[in-house]
Specification:
Length: 463
């Protein structure tokens, strides 16, 4: 058997869990490191109202049961966060004991999932405004159902999923505001290549229609009204690039607002490791460069699931099987042969999903106009209270690269280290400077990528 420290998998969502279980089934030990209390990631989270939501997926429970059965081969480390990665793949792990330790695996699989994509608008920092994923986490983990009228706005499958889940748990959905148009006939034909997935979307839609929830396509929320908390939203129609139009606006009362234009790959650790990255809107924006074996430009560092390319749970499950074989092959393990059949089956599944993913991307892929609703005094970086006007002034003064702009305004230098605001800063900089957003580089990242008490690092040492 391979040594337990030889392979480290970061993230116990669909991709990471599948990779760890595939390796264990072949007799390969690995470490599975995750910052949550329980395995499953965002898609397979458990909680107080787990049985209440529409379309519960049983695969999460099966994966967790399999993990429990394989604890002899999988060194599972919950409540452990990676706060650093070095070029030689050494990992800085901040665990539940409150100390940071350095692991030195021979290969690392990053399966860190996705981050929500926010578009700052006036009033988005008011109490009562959440990300769609945040509302879903509250529902899944704590059974929190919003009181009062709820407006959900953005685009992508998560918009209708969260609406249907909240509705099934008794929430009052005042409206669903979708920037995307209705799918075209060609897009519907592509979606129909995966009948199970299309069927889930149809069920969400029908659940909303049966309860007569207004669904406004080709519209977006351009402002949130309120003094001490959110009270209403202003909604506007949008053009093909999702830019708000001046006419046809309306006001909808809302006590709780959920915003989200889909998700983007979480590339914090790949940036820190020094991997090459590319920009492609169809892949979620900036994403890490990978070989066919899912290996990055850093030898021995692999990325699987939404942390590499936004593709959803089925793609993540398939890539988990692929990366298990790829890591074993990279390390020259004899068990690689036993993993080859599973990897080949995963490739076939991915090929079968290709038309569906292309159609879904064509329908709901974020458009640059989604960032156009921010006004001069809209906060872009909420950690450092940096407004759109301050960023515009810095660009006018000649700060047309992300690094100098960051140093000039402190945008992206706060507690979240740009997790929330980086896409908005990049798109705003690109628009103000007259550049394609693909030419706006990524900001630098440094260890530790999360706040860590100084005492937690006292025993780290230099070895």
């Amino acid at each position: 058997m391979a040594d337990a420290s030889a392979i480290a998998i970061v993230g116990a969502g669909p991709a990471g869990l599948t990779a760890a279980l595939a390796l264990a089934a072949a007799g390969v030990r690995c470490s599975l490191i995750d910052d949550n209390d329980a395995a499953g990631g965002q898609i397979f989270r458990t909680g107080a109202r787990e049985r209440a939501y529409l379309g519960k997926d049983p695969r999460g429970a099966r994966l967790r049961a399999a993990l429990q059965a394989q604890r002899g081969l999988i060194d599972y480390r919950p409540q452990s966060e990676i706060v650093g990665i070095e070029p030689d793949l050494a990992l800085w792990v901040h665990g539940p004991a409150g100390v940071v330790e350095r692991l030195r695996p021979r290969a690392v699989v990053l399966a860190t999932g996705a981050l929500e994509l926010w578009a700052p608008i006036p009033g988005w920092t008011l109490p009562g405004v959440y990300g769609l994923g945040g509302l879903q986490i509250l529902l899944k983990t704590s059974g929190v159902v919003p009181r009062g009228p709820v407006v959900l706005a953005g685009a992508g499958p998560l918009l209708r999923l969260v609406a249907a889940q909240l509705l099934a748990c008794g929430a009052e959905i005042a409206a669903v505001i979708d920037a995307a148009a209705r799918p075209s006939l060609g897009q519907l034909a592509g979606l129909a290549t995966q009948p199970r997935l299309l069927g889930r979307g149809v069920r969400w839609e029908l659940a909303l229609r049966r309860r007569r929830v207004p669904i406004l396509s080709r519209h977006t929320v351009v402002a949130i009204e309120g003094t001490r908390h959110a009270q209403a939203v202003e909604v506007a129609p949008v053009d093909d690039e999702w830019r708000p139009l001046p006419s046809g606006r309306r006001r909808i009362d809302a006590a709780v607002i959920g915003l989200g234009f889909g998700v983007r790959p979480n590339i914090e650790l790949t940036r820190l490791a020094g991997c090459d990255h590319d920009h492609d809107p169809a892949s979620g924006g900036w994403h890490v460069s990978r070989s066919d074996a899912l290996e990055t430009t850093i030898a021995g560092l692999f990325v699987a699931g939404d942390g590499a390319v936004i593709g959803g749970v089925d793609r993540a499950l398939a890539e988990g099987a692929l990366v298990a074989h790829a890591v074993a092959a990279r390390l020259g393990l004899p068990q690689a042969a036993a993993l080859a059949a599973g990897a080949e089956a995963a490739r076939r599944r991915l090929a079968g999903q290709r038309r569906f993913r292309a159609a879904l991307t064509g329908w709901s892929m974020p458009r640059p106009g989604m960032f156009a609703a921010a006004t001069a005094d809209t906060l872009i970086c909420r950690c450092e209270d940096v407004t759109r006007a301050q960023i515009a002034d810095a660009v006018a003064a000649g700060y047309t690269e992300i690094g100098p702009l960051k140093m000039s305004t402190r945008a992206g230098m706060g507690l979240c280290q740009g997790r929330s605001c980086t896409p908005a800063i990049q798109h705003l900089l690109a628009a103000l400077a007259g550049l394609p957003v693909a030419q706006i580089s990524l900001p630098t990242s440094r260890i530790p990528i999360r706040p860590v008490p100084l005492g937690a690092m006292a025993t780290l040492g230099g070895g």
